């Protein structure tokens, strides 16, 4: 058992970002992935460039990952960050994703840098913080850097209207885009199928 002196010496990442000694566990473990489809693929399969960067399951480890990752606004065009619960791949074909869909936030290029970086940070924090009463339906989030406009997607495991719209409203507020409409669309069953939005908040 720790002594009174040892307990008094313990500090959190919020008190000392470098020398903290206490870690706060998350409800689940998360994995950060990265890919750049514009790079020459190592094979014909889309997963060839998808790389698992790190797993983490505490608040402090999340900040360690975030503080050492390149901000989305500095990534090459075509790049994607994926933050998903451990055990769920950022792919439509994953059993947890196949019957769900995604909310999409579009960020126009003139607003890109600060808004994109802040929206992505807040979306990640919302995911790991289980920010909705339906958070169990959240599989992960994607930050897609593109030429015309960047996008942040929040992937869900279901298409239930009440759950989807509740999560969507929370996402708008958390990401800092409450003045704009965001759209939800089910995942297509194959690459030939064009996704169609079914909800909007």
UniProtKB/TrEMBL annotation:
Record keyword Hydrolase present: no
An annotated GO BP: regulation of translation
Keywords: Initiation factor, Protein biosynthesis, RNA-binding, Translation regulation
Superkingdom, taxonomy of origin: Eukaryota
Cellular component, GO, one term: eukaryotic translation initiation factor 4F complex
InterPro entries, alphabetized: TIF_eIF4e-like, TIF_eIF_4E
Keyword RNA-binding: yes
GO MF annotations in UniProt: RNA 7-methylguanosine cap binding; translation initiation factor activity
Similarity-based family: Belongs to the eukaryotic initiation factor 4E family.
Protein name per its UniProtKB record: Eukaryotic translation initiation factor 4E
């Amino acid at each position: 058992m720790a002594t009174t002196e040892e307990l008094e010496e313990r500090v959190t990442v919020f008190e000392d970002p470098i020398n903290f000694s206490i870690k706060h566990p998350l409800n689940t473990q998360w994995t950060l992935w990265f890919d750049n489809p514009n790079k020459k693929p190592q094979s014909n399969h889309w997963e060839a460039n998808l790389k698992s960067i790190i797993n983490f399951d505490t608040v402090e480890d999340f900040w360690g990952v975030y503080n050492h990752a390149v901000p989305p606004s500095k990534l090459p065009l075509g790049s994607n960050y994926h933050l998903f619960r451990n055990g769920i791949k950022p792919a439509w074909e994953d059993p947890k994703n196949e019957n769900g869909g995604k909310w999409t936030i579009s960020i126009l290029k003139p607003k890109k840098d600060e808004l994109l970086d802040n929206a992505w940070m807040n979306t990640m924090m919302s995911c790991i913080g289980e920010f909705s009463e339906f958070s169990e339906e959240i599989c992960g989030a994607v930050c897609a850097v593109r030429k015309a406009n960047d996008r942040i997607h929040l992937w869900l495991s279901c298409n239930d209207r009440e759950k989807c719209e509740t999560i969507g409203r929370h996402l708008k507020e958390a990401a800092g885009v409450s003045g704009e409409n965001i759209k939800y669309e089910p995942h297509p069953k194959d690459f030939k199928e064009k996704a169609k939005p079914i909800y909007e908040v």
